[in-house]
Amino acid sequence: MNITPVSIAELLGDEIENAKDIEITGAGSILTAKKNDLTYIDHTDKLNRLPESKAGCIIVPLEAKNKTFDFKGAIIYSENPKYSFTKFLRILEKEVCPAKKPSIHKTATIDETASIGEDIFIGPYVTIGKNAKISKGANINAHSFIGDNVQIGEDSFIHPNVTIRENCIIEKNVIVHSGAIIGSDGYGYIKVKGRHEKIPQIGKVRIGENVEVGANCTIDRATLGETIVGTGTKLDNLIHIAHNVTIGANCLIMAQVGIAGSSEIGNNVIMGGQAAISDHIKIGDNAIVMGKTGIISNLDAGKIVFGHVGRPHREAMKIEVLMSKLPDMYKALKKIQKKLEL
Question: Active-site positions?
Answer without folding.
Answer: 243
